[in-house]
Write a structure and sequence with these properties.
Layout lengths: L2 H8 L7 H7 L11 E4 L9 H16 L3 E4 L13 H11 L6 E5 L5 E4 L11 H13 L3 E5 L2 H17 L8 H10 L4 H9 L4 E5 L8 E6 L3 E6 L6 E3 L7 H11 L4 E5 L6 H11 L5 E5 L2 E4 L5 E3 L9 H7 L3 H12 L3 H7 L20 E2 L2 H13 L3 H15 L1 H9 L1 H8 L18 H5 L19 H14 L6 H14 L6 H6 L8 H13 L7 H8 L1 H14 L1
Parallel strand pairs: 1-2, 2-3, 10-11, 12-14
Antiparallel strand pairs: 3-4, 5-6, 6-9, 7-8, 12-13
Length: 561
């Protein structure tokens, strides 16, 4: 076979060479040990929580090593492309601390633009580059065309597409496919000329020299040392429209863009033999691979399952709607990525998660378990560390979008809201009332007349006369100028007068000697003022509500008893 002639027949318009491309994209000049990583999604809708994992890992590895992190848009499947999805992806990732040094970025008008010297950063615009290397492989006898009808081509590509990520049987292949592969290799230059003259489409396939019975060794930075069967499949490199498959684009793009570490999900492990072979064919240095385990969650039966796009929390937009602040989600992701993050954070409570010395070696081999309870716990800590003004701003902004009546109430009296959020804030052990911004309304709505309601009833075991006497006596004695000790001494006095223990130690020593304790007397007042059995510090609540509002609410409860 005259491979030079075959290459000219297939790609007559390609005059560039691999050497030209190497000159166009010179090696990066970076500090010793600098890592170059990329996030290369196919934006087809919302950003999945699973996408935040590899992008966070890539961003951390690159920036902690003073390297480069870039965004490449893999838009080779035009049928799946969704208008605006790429812009949405960039906005979402930026919201969660993932920023790019190169590639696709947003301008001041929110439109995609590109920066960096290794573009185009959109695969559909790199056709000449791919075809240059494809022509070179044909010239070397390492790739060949397969002509088909349109119907056959669609069926063939669909089969290949499924095999790309779903075929986990590395050692065997269907006998029919093997026979078809051998048959496809048998053609002449005349056959090619005839098909081209008739305008028949073709895909370009690699001519595999692998043997599925032989093993190739490689070290994955997460999975460790692996032995996997060689690739013996003539997989597609270029589709009939000249656009590459993931396999070919990955090899060409990551080489020319200087990617040192390829970070992707473990579902791509079955394709690794293809990529090892392809990098060898192209004469490229193999990057380091990291295959991240799937994110799991427990189903209703307590069994682990993959976090699917239909699960709550899979869509990153869910977190905004539910009221999670980005910093909390980012810290939660770090707890999943590195097992020692929480220990570090406990020792460095005031430092950003971006100062954490992230390590690939601490990543889980078996996968992470998504847990809303854990996320809420992390989020409570994050929000508790914010100052009152910041919390007020964040809750107000969120509520104006997702709970407008509440948002407008906060917006109308920001100083009042800030005083509420300041309760128990600061110090070594701040209150942890809010896991999300959405928790603010149930936490503090009783401060506002339009939202106030009696949520908790008095327990049946307490005498209604005692409750009424408590409220009447408190109203008569309440002075908003009292300090906390004086205020509480009055409550203890009410307890003693009604046969309730004012001394908790005495009550615990002999509960039967009393009707109850001063805690119960406080509860009688708390329910009247807040409508709840549990609420923030009652003295502070009354100071914020003011004397008139406090007494009005107690009077209303007296009249209802």
């Amino acid at each position: 076979m005259d491979f030079e002639r075959l290459a000219e027949l297939l790609y007559p318009d390609i005059t560039t060479t691999p050497e030209d491309m190497e000159a166009r994209f010179p090696r990066r000049e970076l500090p010793e040990g600098a890592v170059v990583t990329r996030f290369a999604p196919s934006p087809t809708g919302f950003v999945h929580f699973g996408g935040l994992f590899p992008s966070t890992v890539g961003e951390r590895m690159a920036h902690l090593s003073k390297g480069v992190f870039f965004l490449r848009i893999e838009d080779t499947d035009a049928k799946r492309e969704v208008e605006g999805a790429a812009e949405g992806l960039i906005k979402t990732l930026e919201r969660y601390g993932v920023s790019f040094d190169e590639g696709a970025v947003l301008d001041e008008n929110g439109k995609i633009t590109y920066k960096g010297n290794y573009g185009p950063y959109k695969q559909s615009e790199r056709r000449e580059i791919y075809q240059t290397f494809a022509k070179s492989l044909v010239q070397k006898g390492l790739a060949y065309p397969v002509f088909t009808t349109e119907e056959e081509l669609e069926e063939l590509l669909e089969t290949d597409k499924k095999a790309e990520i779903k075929n986990t049987d590395w050692t065997t292949a269907a006998a029919e496919k093997k026979a078809a592969q051998l048959k496809a290799r048998e053609f002449t230059i005349e056959d090619v000329e005839k098909n081209l003259a008739e305008g028949n489409p073709f895909v370009l396939r690699v001519l595999s020299d692998g043997d599925g019975e032989r093993k190739v060794k490689i070290t994955d930075l997460i999975k460790g040392n692996l032995e996997i069967p060689e690739n013996d499949e003539d997989f597609v490199l270029l589709k009939s429209d000249g656009i590459p498959t993931y396999h070919f684009a990955h090899a060409v793009d990551d080489h020319l863009m200087g990617t040192t570490h390829v970070i992707r999900g473990e579902e791509w492990l079955p394709s690794l033999p293809k990529h090892i072979q392809l990098f060898r064919y192209l004469g490229f240095k193999l990057p380091k691979f990291m295959h991240i385990s799937q994110i799991m969650k427990l189903d209703e039966n307590g069994n682990k399952k993959k976090l699917s796009k239909r699960d709550m929390g899979a869509n990153m937009d869910d977190y905004t709607r539910m009221g999670y602040i980005p910093e909390a989600v980012c810290e939660y992701v770090m707890t999943l990525l590195n097992s020692n993050y929480e220990e570090w954070h406990a020792q460095n409570p005031d430092k950003s998660y971006k100062e954490f010395p992230f390590s690939v070696k601490k990543m889980s081999v078996s996968g992470c378990l998504f847990d809303f309870d854990k996320l809420n716990d992390v989020s409570k800590n994050v929000i508790s560390r914010l100052d009152a003004r910041t919390v007020t701003q964040k809750v107000t902004e969120w509520a104006l979008q997702f709970d407008e009546p509440f948002g407008k109430a906060l917006e109308a009296t920001p100083d009042f809201a800030e005083r509420i959020f300041a309760i128990g804030r600061g110090g070594k052990k701040p209150r942890r009332d809010l896991a999300t911004l959405a928790d603010a309304r149930p936490y503090m709505s009783f401060f506002y007349d339009e939202f106030f309601k009696l949520e908790d009833e008095y327990p049946e075991n307490f005498d209604r006369d005692d409750i009424k006497k408590t409220l009447v006596t408190f109203n008569l004695s309440y002075d908003e100028n009292d300090d906390m000790n004086t205020w509480f001494d009055k409550i203890k006095g009410i307890a003693d007068s009604l046969g309730y223990a004012s001394d908790m130690k005495a009550y615990k020593a002999d509960p039967s000697a009393f009707k109850g304790s001063v805690a119960d007397i406080s509860m009688f007042i708390r329910v009247a003022v807040t409508g709840k059995m549990n609420a923030p510090d009652l003295y502070t609540v009354m100071q914020i509500l003011g004397r008139q509002k406090t007494l009005e609410r107690i009077d209303a409860m007296i009249n209802s008893l």
